[in-house]
Structure formats: structure tokens, C-alpha cells
Amino acid sequence: MEWDDSTKPGSFVSRTAFGTISNVQINNCGQFQQPKGIINISNIDATATASSTPTLSILNSVFMNSDTIGVNFLNAGNIDFENNVILNTVQIGMNVKDLNNSIINNNIIMFTKKYQLDASVSMTTIIQAN
Amino acid sequence: MVVRMSPKKNARQLGPLNQATDCIQQLNINGTIMFIPDDTNPNIVFRANIIYGHTGNIIIGSSTAPLDPKYSVTIELCGTVKSPYLAIDNSVEQINKGIMLTNNVSLFGSPRQVWLGRLSATALIGSPSISVKPCLSLKAGDQIAVGPGDFGSRTNLSSDSAIQSFVYTVTSATCSGGLMAILVQNNTVADHIVPMGSFQSGVLNALNANLKFAPEVAVLSRNIIIQPYN
Known about the structure:
Radius of gyration of chain B: 22 Å
Order of helices and strands of chain B: EEEEEEEEEEEEEEEEEE
Distance between the termini of chain B: 31 Å
Oligomer: heterodimer
Radius of gyration of chain A: 14 Å
Structural class of chain B: mainly beta
Number of helices of chain B: 0
Shape of chain B: elongated
Number of strands of chain B: 18
Helix content of chain A: under 10%
Number of helices of chain A: 0
Number of domains of chain A: 1
Strand content of chain B: 35-45%
Strand order of the largest sheet of chain A: 1-4-7-10-13
Number of domains of chain B: 2
């Protein structure tokens, strides 16, 4: 699965990904041998403040069995990722790069064959108690 | 346009299907698609090779009325590709199997209030029973994972990050006195060891000769499922 709000060249359509995923189970997904996880969240208004951009909330969900990364955040912002299970990934359980104005809290990452977490985030992103 | 995926409006009304698999090749959403099971058809299975959210909305349940636990919605991704890919940047939006969302998604499965606990007693290999604290939001047929979920980062590689976690299917679950007794369909396939005597205080006792880890138990089952078809 992929979330993205890139604006295509030549187009004046600006798209914003937002909403809530709550208590959803996603099995056996991921881009084999590529850095695309079960779920990929990218290019979501990384510079905006939470008050100006709708939030994408992923809560109480399960991401299991990936041939690659579990959950991927790349150049994203205003994400609320809490109380999720990431299970059985060939690569990193959760890859967090350039994440802004976000909360990653109280998730559990089980049985990853590489690191459970690889993160570089802004000071406004809170990663705790995972 | 709002398309309500109910028993009276099935996937055939959205576009041509592969008759063998009931799969839509590509679903483009610029309006709203809602999945609404009912007592006549409590388990909706929707199959598509590719789903593009575009400017549209995908809705299952709501924050105030999540999908009833007696219903389920399963979205299955079809296609024979063995190496699914996603390609997306400022000029490319391409996928050969998957879901690409660029607008609103609202998926609210039935809540599992208590989804995470720890073993409260050692579960030895071959045992059909597991004891967990606190009681989990479980029912027969659910899947649970038992294993270490300890934090390990790139700079602090967790020594146990490669330890296997095992998935079991629950036969029954009974809560009593804050402990949950769980029977699993297939007997446990590894020793799941609890640091006895230290778990009650919540402090791991590294001097305990039996200490390997305090396995966590996570509820895996939800009633909104996204997975490959076959």
C-alpha cells in the first residue's frame, strides 16, 4: 500500500493523503527485494504543521509477513502511528526517514531479520515506547 | 459518485472482471467506495489487481461505528506477478499489484481493546496452552503471535531481533483473575520462557538463570483484512 501526495509535473492537482486506518490487518505484502514495505507513507506534506494538514492515523493495526521492510515512512509528516503490530519482515521492521510532526508510539515489532527500527526524524516527531 | 459495496451491488457493477477469479483489473476511485456487509452477506471479499485512490475515498465503518465484529471485509490483491512493485515520485505513479492511495482512507475495523500482553507462565514446547497477562480481546479462531518485541535500533541492534516469533491459532480463551488461559490449535513449537519470579514486579531479573526474554503476546486478527489473492 502506498500513500503519497506528490504533485505531478504539468498538473495543478495537489493531492493530500489523510484519514484513519484502525484495526486493519495487512498480510503478505511488500515489494520483493526493494525498499517498499507492507505499507509505505511518503511525500506527505513534511513541512506543514499539524493544524494546516489533515493527519493520517494508523492505529491498532497489524502488518505481517513481508519479503522486505515492514512499515516505511519517507519524507512524510503529520502521521499518528500507534498501537500497531509489525511481525515477520525480511528487512527492517520500521524504517523512518524524514518524518516531521508525527507520533510513533507503543507499537510492537516482532521477528525482523534486520533491525527492528531505523530512524532519522525531526525534533517534532516523537518516537517512544515501541 | 458513491458506490456502496453491499450484497446487492457487487464488484461486477464496477467494471469488467476476470471470470475465473472475480478480480477487477484496475479500480480507479474518484468518488467514494464503501464496503457495507450485512447479515445476509456478513463477509465481503473484494478482489482487484490494482486500486488507485486518486481523488476518491475508501470507507469501511467509521470512528463512531466501526465494522461490527460479526462482519468482515477482505480486500484481496490479484495478479500473477511474483515480484510486485510500486513506483511513485513526481512523475511516476505506477503499480502492478497493490493499493495506491492519494486522498482519503477511512477504515475502522472492530476494536481489540487489549491487543498486547505477556506470557505469565512458561509455555514449553509441545504444550497446547498459554497463560497470558492481562486478558486479551480474543475469540476462537483468532491468531496470536508469541515472541520478543524488544526494541532494537540501527545503532543498538537488538540481540534478540532475529529470534523467531511464532503464530498460533486460538481454540479457546478464558479470562479469570486477570489471567487468560489460551488453548492453541497446534501445540507450541518452541519453549517460550518467562523470567519467573520477576515478571510480577515488571522488572526483568538478569540474574535469573532461565532468563532469555519475557515473550509478548500480540493479537493479530482483525475483521478488515488486506492481503494477496492466492
